[in-house]
Every structure is written in structure tokens, then in C-alpha cells.
Amino acid sequence: MQNIKTIARREMRAYFDSLVAYVVIGGSMLGLGIFFFLFQQGGFWQVDRATMARMFEFMPWALTLLVIPLITMRLLADEKRSGTLELLITMPVKDSDVILGKYFAALGLATVLLLATLIYPIAMFVWPWHIGALDWGPVFAGYLGLFLFSAAGIAIGLLYSSITDSQIIAFFLTVTTLLFIYFIGSLAETVHHAVGDVISFVSFQSRFHPFARGLVDTRDVLYFLSITAICLLIAFRSLESRKWS
Amino acid sequence: MSSDVMIYANDLTKNFGSFRALDKINFEVRRGEVVGFLGPNGAGKSTTMRILTCFIAPSGGVAKINGHDIFDDTLEVRRSVGYLPQRAPLYLEMSVLEYLRFAADIRQLDDATFKKRARNVVEVCGLAQVLGKEIRHLSHGYRQRVGLGQALIHDPPILILDEPTSDLDPNEKAEFLDYLKQIGKQRTVLLSTHNLAEVEIACSRAIIVSSGRIVADGALDDIRAKAGKIRYVTSIQGEAGRALPRSELQAALSGIRGVTRVADLASDEAGHSFELSSNRDIDLRRDIFRLAVDKGWTLLELHRDTQTLEDVFRELTIGDERRNRSLGSNGQSQRHHMEQSVQG
After folding, report:
1. CA B144 to CA B147: how far, in whole Å?
2. Which domain holds residue A47?
3. What is the mean pLDDT of residues B139-160?
4. Which residues of chain A neighbour B103 with C-beta distances below 8 Å?
5. How far, in Å, are A65, A75, A142, A221, B35 from residue A155 at the CA level?
6. Angle A53-62/A136-163 helices, nearest 10 degrees?
7. CB contacts, 8 Å: A87 with chain B
8. Which end of chain B offers a freer environment for a tag, N or C, measured as fewer CB atoms within 10 Å?
9. What is the per-residue pLDDT across B263-311, written as a single tens digit (0 to 9) for each?
10. pLDDT tens readout for residues B249-267
11. Contacting A residues, span 90-109, partner chain B, CB-CB under 8 Å
């Protein structure tokens, strides 16, 4: 436990010592601002409703294309390439500590980003402005959804980072997988219903959508948690496999 | 296995696919020994060290560190060892102090112990000037010192150092080796290097590996005794073109007092060539010349050179056949060079 914390703390520092944290947080906030107020149906003001729905439309994009790939690509790939992994692993740490430490650091950074976006509902509906009566239920459910989305996405990214020593490859594999697994959700209604069922079972979009509408279904929660657990387990095995290669 | 044995390797084998990197390596290192682990690149030094530090697993065999099995007790093994991998891979974005702190945290030293140990490590590794600097801004020499610092931070009984001097300048090297001798008194140190002279300074014993096998393991004096030999190369022709049996020549040369070995070198129609070995203190050139005069041979060539530690190392690690071939190719390239300069 102590070691997980030590490793996570070091990773977190590395995020803020490099540009990654600033690019991720700054880029997402900028994208969110532009999307929220300007694009699609004339932006937030044209919709004229006290809702955060636009945020939950945008954030999966940001997480998929920018946040998750950027914060996970270097986690293990870079350490393998530079050889620092050898020094880390030959210290008295368990392989699982390494995986979990890195995982929690990335999840921590994603959480910081999600907390930063809370400035939108708070500034508009609580203080200093109060432009309408916001229904907070869907907002909290939506945030829970985003958190679970990040948790599963980061586990996928970490898995890719554990099987390659190239950050670029890890980045593209993560983007591709997340894009695919998110947006196949849109296909669910256009194909044969048996196939459609399978698609909506695995798609992040169909799993995330209920959260954005304020519906917390334990099946969806379990789905994201299972993806997380499975990917972390594979990442752990992949790290372990260096011993036998 | 006595309790004095700190590093124990029995039949260690490692295959990478079909390539056998280590082939049944056996050795022991006792408490208080500083052992040099020598071999050319790719001989299996780093592989052995990575196995001993639990970074990779052997394909076969047993290894124990401080009595702990590397399979069953891997965390204990890693607690007992301070390890510096090749080229000191450190987190570049951290400062030296942060890095030492990180190593101490992972090793779960409390704050007071860390302060005490850090002071000691900073002093012995000469890090006082760079403590606040980011590692990315340090020279390779300093990075290696930081790497050594992290290996020492928990005061381990065993140090495993993979080419710790490769990036140091000559002054730093001398200092480092001196320091190794100091700490080697209470600790067990296994250090790998290409450089036999370094081993001579710091180690009491050397293990030489080649192509995944141990080719020599012994006190440095024994290896030095082997290295102290002087060799003579001579080329002899019989009387006025009379063919002289090689065995006769060899027997006569072996008869010279002080000759310990007569080895055949390549011969051509002009004559037979031999390599003679002897002990350090007698010069055989005179005797060889007299023998040639007595027998009526023509002496085409005779020279003497001292075999250095490096020569022994090369002899053990590339083998006689390769050595002869490389001599031959040297000659060729010399001839080639001469031809070129004549043309020029």
C-alpha cells in the first residue's frame, strides 16, 4: 500500500513536471469552453435550458481523443524504453504495486480534470451567478459516469503501455480502441438487433449514456469496473512476462 | 551452503528463445568479498545480474541472495541488494535529492534514517554540489554517482553493480574504486566491467564469463600469475632449404630451460613458427638464438612480448583459434596499409 502511494506520487509529479498535465487540463478546458458556448445548435445560450448535458456530450470526446491516451501512453512504455523500469522493479516492490501506483496516478490526474470542469455548473448555477434552477441529479450521475469512463479507459491505456515500449504506439492503440469502443454505440440501432444488442453491451457510449441522463444502473457501473479489472490484470501479466521472455 | 555465502548461483541457465544466454553458471560470493565479474559484451554479465536482482527469471537453476531464494522470497532478495543497472537509468525529471528520497520511500526508510543515510551517501558519492539539480542536467558521471547513491541508501549487505565505472573519467574511476575497496570490507560486492585493471585495483577475486559460461573463477593472484607470462614468437628455417620436421623443432624448443609451453603457429614454405611461453624473470631470446646456431637453423624472426591482463582476458574469452585468426588479419591489414603507402 505504502509503495503504491510512493509510486503514484512520483508519477503525479512527473505529470506536472512535464507538459502533460497542463496540455491535458488546458486543452480539455479550452475545448469544453468552445464546444459548450459556441458550437452545435448555437451553443448553451440558444438551448435556453438549465442543463449540463452539453458537458457530458463533450467530455467523452476529450477523454477519448486527448486525456486518456496522453496520460497513459508513457506510464510503462517510457520506463521500458529508458530502462528506469529495471531500477524500479529491482527495488522491493511488487509488480502489482507498480501497476496500481501508475494506474492511480493517471486516474488522479483525470479526476483533477473532472473536478476542474465542475467550475461550469458551480459558476453558472451556484455562485457567483445563478442563472436558473439546475437539476443536480443528472450532473452528479454524469460525473460518476465520466469517472467510471476514465477508470476503464485508463486501464485500457495502461494495458497498451505495458505491451509496447513506444509511447506513440501506445497512444494510437489507445485512441483507436477507445474511439471504436465508444462510437460503435451509434451503430447499435442501424444493424440487426442481435448484433445491436452485442454492440450496446460493449459500447462505452451505450453504457455512458444513461449516466448523462441521470440514470445510475448497477449493470453499467459493473461493466466499467469489470473492464478496469480485466485490463489491469492483463497489464500486470504483461509486466510480469518480462521475466520469462 | 554456509551462512557466509551471500550470493549463490547453481546451474543458472537463461534462454532467450533459441539463444542460450547463460549456460549452467555456478558460483558463490562470500561475505566481505569484492568480486569482479568480467566478460566481453553479450557474455551474459547483465543477464546474470538481472536474474540475481529478480528483474528476470532464469530458465533453469537456483540462485540465492543472502539465503533468500530468488523465486520464493523475491522481496527479501531485493531488500538485501543495492543494484545499479548499466548506464544508471534514473528519472530525469527528478532532482538528486528527490530521487534519493524516492528510493528511500520505496525501501520504507523512516525520515530520521533517511537523513542519516542520505548524509553518508552524499558524502561518499560526492553529490553535495548537485543535490538540488535535476538529473537531466547532470553529466553521465554524476548520474552514475546518483545511481550508486540510490543503491547504497538502505545500507544493503550486498551490492550488485553493472559496469559502474563505464561513464566515469579517470579521476572519478580511481576515486570510485578506492571507495569500493572501503565499503567492500563489510559488504559483498559483485561488479561487472570490461576493464581488468579496475578489477585489479578493487577486487580480490574475478569471475570471467564468455558466451554464457564461466571460463575462469579465482583469486586475482592466480589470474595474475597466468597473466605474468611472457611469450616469444619465433620463426625458424632449416639448413639451406632442408625440410625440417616440425616435431623435431618443437622438441628442441621445449628443451630450453624455462619454457613452459610451445604452441604451433601457422607455417609457410619459408619456415615454422612457434609461440613459446615462459615465466616472467628469464629472458629466453639468447637461448633460442644459441639453439638455432648450434643446430644450424636460420632464425627468420624472434620477438618477445609481455602478456598483459587484457591478453589473458582475451585468450579466455575468444579462444586460441580466434586469436590466431585475428593476428593473421592484423598482419594482412598491415600489409595492406604498407601497400597503400607505397602506392601513395
Report:
1. 5
2. 2-241
3. 93
4. 91
5. 15, 11, 20, 15, 44
6. 0
7. 83, 85, 89-90, 147, 150
8. C
9. 887 777 667 888 888 765 677 888 888 888 888 888 888 887 765 666 6
10. 888 888 888 888 888 877 7
11. 90-94
Give the minimum alpha-carbon distance from A111 to chain B in angstroms, rounded to a whole number.
Answer: 23
Q: How many CB pairs under 8 A join A and B?
A: 69
Check A91 against B103: CB less than 8 A apart: yes
If one counts every other C-beta atom within 10 angstroms of the C-beta of residue B219, the result is 12
For position B343, what pLDDT does the model report?
A: 42
Identify the three-state secondary structure at position B326: helix
Percentage of chain B lying above the pLDDT 70 cut: 84
3-state class of B213 per DSSP?
strand
When scoring B79, B102, B137, B154 by the number of chain A Cβ atoms within 10 A, the one with the most, hence best to mutate, is B102
Q: What is the pLDDT of residues B20-41, one digit of tens each?
A: 999 999 999 999 899 999 888 8
| Residues 6 or more apart in contact with residue B274 via CB below 8 angstroms | B233, B234, B235, B236, B249, B250, B253, B262, B263, B264, B265
Indicate the SS3 state at residue B209. Answer: strand
Comparing CB atoms, the residue among B56, B78, B91 nearest residue A91 is B78
What confidence score (pLDDT) does residue B320 get? Answer: 38
Closest-CA distance, B141 to chain A, in angstroms, reads 17
Q: What is the pLDDT of residue B283?
A: 78
Among chain B residues, CA nearest to A19: B93
Question: Chain A partners of B53 at a C-beta cutoff of 8 Å?
Answer: 90
CB distance B100 to B150 below 8 Å: yes
Give Cβ neighbours of residue B84 (< 8 Å, ≥ 6 apart): B144, B147, B148, B150, B151, B159, B160, B161, B162, B164
- For the cut 80, the answer to whether the pLDDT of residue B243 exceeds it is no
**For position B32, what pLDDT does the model report?**
87
Closest CA to B211 of B34, B18, B39, B328: B39
If one counts the domains in chain A, the total is 1
